[in-house]
Amino acid sequence: MNNRFPENFLWGAATSAGQVEGGWNEGGRGPSIMDILGGSVDGSVHRHQTVKVMKDVYYPGHTGSDFYHQYKEDIALMGQMGLKSYRMSISWSRIFPEGDERTPNEEGLQFYDNVFAELAKYGIEPIVTILHYDAPLHLADHYGGWSDRRMIDFYLHYCDTLFKRYKGKVKYWITFNEINCLLVPFGVITAGAMNMSYKSEDNTEQLRLQALHHQFVASAKAVALGHQIDSNNKIGCMIAYMCNYPLTCRPEDIRLAQQDDQIKNMLCGDVQVRGSYPGFATRYFAEKGLHIEMLPEDTETLKSGTVDFYAMSYYMTNCIGTDESQEFTAGNLIYGMKNPHLKATEFGWQIDPLGLRWVLNNVYYRYQIPIMIVENGMGTVDTVQDGKIIDNYRIDYLQKHIEQIGESIADGVEVIAYTPWSALDLVSLSGGTMRKRYGLIYVDKDDYGDGTLKRIPKKSFYWYKKVIGSNGLDLSNED
């Protein structure tokens, strides 16, 4: 078989600052939304959302994987793995501790200077997410987060600082992580409305959509700003692709799946790639009695700030249908009906490599711009035996998804990067724990903070090194 992956393909791996860095109150960093999400009380781990950091709660994210202190070792391991790219994020509150200051925190800026220098040493291209769910807590507490339009200016000042400081060091930028999560109840967390739980009756679609519009405007302005500061910048959106198949061939199920795809996935893509709200969104807002407050100039702002590439996360698929008696199962950001033709992980996420090919074709032939797959992986409970982690299940998952990326490229889809989740074990967003592991590199730490933080490359680490070395031609898993 001829190699379908281009020679400059950005093989990589991904993490986020709020889940991997730790050092939450070091180097002048202020608290972020992520610092109050998950923790353990009296030895019981659960989602423990409050409006401030509590003294009697242990928060795994406060230490994370200790990348803040061990980034040189971690990047050396990435170099050993042969990574061509590293999809990471910058902690806003490390640069602006409260988010609304005019003067940045120099120690925080220097930390990322150091990270980029280490990446350059190993020839690893950074793909930087500007905001990955972790806005400064002060902005949530004092402004109500993204439901307040003033967030746009705070964000743009942050972007201006990053684009100027790291000019020539970072080429690829992503404005917001999984921006479409604001279309589901979980999104209230990323909206920064921290006075409410995502299950609260105050978590309204109206609030989340207003926050989403402000993020659209902020993203479009950031794209224009980034291009103005450095014409070499490539700036993309990032969508959590929530793929739901129709449960049956009943026309009602087919239409329900189409509408679900339009609202959850295509609405955000259309605004950020095409530069305007699609007609189906206008109708949806009207039928649901939703009113998005916009300024007259927002229309032109969205048109003039369209993105250069489309980034996405893809983990699984579910089903959707009119028969509510069907069994439901878990997934990334959403729940859906079980697909009887798919196996699932121990956490209930259905495994569907062929679905990735469907999604890539669906996205590319709608937008015709380059695609990055910046999250794709399998969360499991890994076991260390004789100092090794034999994660053949993860290799099988990644292997089959990479095969379908190759098929998609043969279909004519322009995929330019693949950065599976995650480079090393980190705090799971869905559970706020270390137990659910995604990493190619094991981190010795449990949900309660016990462990040495020692790094151990898993079997998948060495397998992925071989994949990268062969540019995707050798996917075999041979001992």
From TrEMBL:
Single GO MF annotation: beta-glucosidase activity
InterPro entries to which the protein is assigned, alphabetical: GH, Glyco_hydro_1
Recorded superkingdom: Bacteria
UniProt keyword list: Glycosidase, Hydrolase
Keyword Hydrolase listed: yes
Pfam families linked to this entry: Glyco_hydro_1
GO cellular component entries: cytosol
A GO biological-process term: carbohydrate catabolic process
Keyword Ribosomal protein among UniProt keywords: no
Signal peptide (from-to): none
Similarity comment text for this entry: Belongs to the glycosyl hydrolase 1 family.
UniProt-recorded name of the protein: Amygdalase
